[in-house]
Every structure is written in structure tokens, then in C-alpha cells.
Amino acid sequence: MREFLRRPRSALMAAGAVCLVVAAVLAVTVAASGSPGRRVEPLAKAFTLGQLGHAGQHVSLAADAGHPVIVNFFASWCGPCKRETPLLARFFAEHHGGIRVIGIDSNDQTSNAIKFVTKEGVTYPVAVDPFPAKTAVSYGVLGLPQTFFLNAQHRIVRHIFGDVTASQLSTWADQLSRARS
Question: What is the mean pLDDT of residues 78-82?
Fold first, then answer.
């Protein structure tokens, strides 16, 4: 008779343990996500890198404090980057001052990168992130191109894998500008 009573007790204890584990996982998930219905965007990683083609000069995210910024990781050898970079260059020329753009040339040869940005008419600051591309890695960039849209507090509000389109640039730039007003 005792053996019969122990089995249901063991099953009940096991079920209780499973419930406790599920409750703990749920509590951690809710706590990590913040309050329900409100999403907090991650803060962009700060960086200071050498400026492409300008020895001794630097490009830093902190220099654009209080301004929305588009951070674009690219390289001259990257096929999709060759389509995207002229688009970003035109966008920057048309919206100069409203939304900042920072290019980060990642894992590239300096001479090739300088030729590339010159040919494409890039006038926004371009930083150099040489191998092992610590800044790209800190942003989770493992493939190029990737673009991050940061609000004025430098929180990442949009992350695009692959080449950005004119429509995406326009839509997110408008949203960033409105949020700043």
C-alpha cells in the first residue's frame, strides 16, 4: 500500500517541479523584455575610429550626440555595397545636416576603399574598421552591408541586413526626423 501512495506523490512532485521551472522561465522572460507593450531599443555601441583617407583624424558616434544617425557597414569588395553606396551618397547630399550618415569600411584595403568612396561621390564621414573589425563585431555584423538607423539618443530603431533601398532610407529618415521634432 505504501508503494502505491509514493508513486502519485512522486508524480505530483515532478509536476510541481516542472511548473516551477516554467514559472521561472516566464518570469525571467517578462523581466528581460521590460513592461508589456513597451519595447526599449538597444543602445548603439560607441566607437571612435580613424577616418578613411585622413591620417590622424577620427570618426566617432559621440560627435553626433543628439542627432539621428545612419551607420552603414560596407567594403569596396562587397557586391551589394556597390549598389547601396551611391544611393547613400545621394541621400546624404539631399538631406545634409538633417540626418547624419557614418560609413564604416570594414575589413578592406585602404587604397581600394578610398578609390571606391571617391568614385561613388561619398561626402559623409567614413571610418576604417580594419581586421579583426572590432566595431563591426560589437554591432553583430558578420556580413556586409548592414545599416543601423539610430534615433537622437543613439538607440537602434531599425537594422537592415543587406543593401538598403531608397524606400527604406526615406521611410526611416522621415520617422527619425519626426521623432526628433
Answer: 97
Residue ranges with strand state E in 61-141: 69-74, 100-106, 126-129
Sheet holding 54-60, edge to edge: 54-60, 48-51, 126-129, 100-106, 69-74, 146-150, 156-161
Q: Is the pLDDT of residue 35 over 80?
A: no
What's the confidence (pLDDT) of residue 31?
A: 35
- Which CATH code fits 48-180? 3.40.30.10
Query: How far is 156 from 151, CA to CA, in rounded Å?
Result: 7
Cα(128)–Cα(51) distance, integer angstroms: 6
How is the chain split into domains, by residue range?
Answer: 1-40, 48-180
The span from the CA of 176 to the CA of 115, in Å, is 31
Report, in this order, helix, strand and coil percent for the chain, each rounded to 5: 45, 25, 30
- CB-based contacts of 86, cutoff 8 Å, min separation 6: 120, 121
Contact 178, 152 (CB under 8 A): no
